[in-house]
Structures are given as structure tokens and as C-alpha cells.
Design goal:
The complex is a heterodimer of chains A (53) and B (254). By secondary structure, chain A is an all-alpha fold. Chain A has one domain (2-39). Chain A has 2 helices and no strands. The longest helix of chain A is centred in the middle third of the chain and has 27 residues, at 13-39. The termini of chain A are far apart. With 254 residues, chain B is an alpha+beta fold. Chain B has a single domain (59-85, 94-253), classed as Beta Barrel (Sortase, Chain: A). Chain B contains 2 helices and 8 strands; from the N terminus they run αββαββββββ. Chain B has an 8-stranded mixed β-barrel with strand order 1-2-3-4-7-8-6-5. The longest helix of chain B has 74 residues, at 7-80. The chains are: A mainly alpha (53), B alpha+beta (254). The interface between A and B is medium-sized, with 19 and 40 residues. Chain B: It comes from Streptomyces parvulus. Chain B: Pfam families: Sortase (PF04203).
Chain lengths: 53, 254
Amino acid sequence: MYGWIWRHLPGNAWVRAVLSLVLVVAVVYVLFQYVFPWAEPLLPFNDVTVDNQ
Amino acid sequence: MAATTDTEHEDTAERERDAARGRGRRAGRIAARAVSVFGELLITAGLVLGLFVVYSLWWTNVVADRAADKQADRVRDDWAQDRVGPDGPGALDTRAGIGFLHVPAMGKGDILVEKGTSMKILNDGVAGYYTDPVKAALPTSGKEGNFSLAAHRDGHGAKFHKIDKIDEGDPIVFETKDTWYVYKTYAVLRETSKFNVDVLDAVPAESGKKKPGHYITLTTCTPVYTSKYRYVVWGELVRTEKVDGERTPPAELR
């Protein structure tokens, strides 16, 4: 999988390394900004109130 | 170099063996690729889970503290410029906080208190007073009742992280624009069901109180890093102090 991505990135090793880094940052950004905030309320870690639900 | 007589027979045998080996090698290669993709997926899943921990315990604090600081600054600004009092003139912005909670047992610093206990409010790194299922009685109203609050134990500012450091007798101070409300902790419930809404009652019977009074209730989740149970701390109003020009804190906070 990662090998496949690496092989399909353009440029020489340096360019690929930089592009990989950009991809990693993009993925982390999407996770932190959208995926985790969406997933968090669905997980039972952070309910602090007492209620009747 | 090879002998010329027996070669034909040997060649075919060798070719067959090579073909078989090639087929085996190809199957092996596919299996190896499948295993490696599966392995990479597992590694990815592990990294994502690790990142989620980083997100929960660090990043949400960064975001929440930033939001809380901004909102707290706005409240302090409004107070300083006499724009919006808790019951004062002007449009009462429900998004703005109503005051600050000081609990020396949980460390220095103040916790902004806002209306409501929805995740949207609490995720800004503030404490919220209950509007549901039991409506909190605000100390500023002067009426008897229970000023019930909730805040996060971990992540999102983790304002009640050290709630277990509060012992009976410890002060809990609520600061509004012009009054310090000094409460004293009188009961701690270290673990209760998350459905136990009775702890929010105007007269919280479980704390041992029978008569109406000015109570404060802090709730959060326990044990740390989970939401299995709720942790409850009760306090009772001891006295109030007028805020002076320098906003000198009451003796309990000095």
C-alpha cells in the first residue's frame, strides 16, 4: 500500500519524500479537524453530565 | 560445458520444475503482498488510534483553552466596561459566561461558567450550569436552590480533572461581576450512576441535606479517561463578599 503510493509519486526521492510529508500532514489535518470531532461523541469517554437518557 | 547426450530429457524435467517453482513463487508473491497490505492496514489503524489519543488528551485541550481564554477575556472586558452584568442592563448574551469558578483545591486559575451542559458548550473548556434535566438555581438570583455545574474531566480543557483533590471543608468560590460567593464543600460522592439526576435536586438528599439552602454541585465523569460513572461534589454557601475596586479575592483564594 505505502510502497504503491511511493512508486506512484512523481519526481526523485527528495520530491517524493516532501510529497509524502505533505500527504501525512493532510491526513492528520483531516483526522483532527473532521474525523475525530465526529467520532468523539459516539465514544463513551467524555460524557460528564448526569441525565435520564 | 553441459553433456550433449542426456540433456534433452534433463531439460524438460528442469523446465517443468522451473514452471512449478514459478507458479509457486507467483502464488507466494500474491500471498506475501496480501499479508503486507494487511499488515500496513494494521499499522495504519494503530497510528490512527494513537493519533486519537493525542487528539483527545492534548489537542482538544489546546482548542478548548484557546476558546475559553477568548470568552473569559470578553466577559472580563464586559465587566470592566460595565456593559453586561449577570442581571444587568443590556442584551444578556447567553453565550457569554455568567462568572468564574475558583477551586483552590484543583489548582490556581478560574473556570468560566456558561449556560447549558451540552457538549457544544463544555467543549469550549468551560463549566456549564444545568438547564436540563434539573434547572440550576443561579446564585445571582439570590433564591435558595442548587447551583449545579458540569465540566470535562479529560480533554476539552479538562477543567474538573482534579475534582478528586477536593475534600470536605475546601472552599469553592464563584465570582460574578460584583459578588464573590464563597461555598464550602460538605459532601463528596466519589462514584454514582450517570442516571442519578437526584444529585442535582434543589435539596440534594444524597448529600445529607434536608432543608432548602444555597447549594453548589459539581459533576464530572469518573474514573479518569472514561465516562462510566459520575463524580459529585456538594458545597454550601458560607457567605458572600462584595467585589471591591481592585477585585481583591476573598481570603480563601489568597
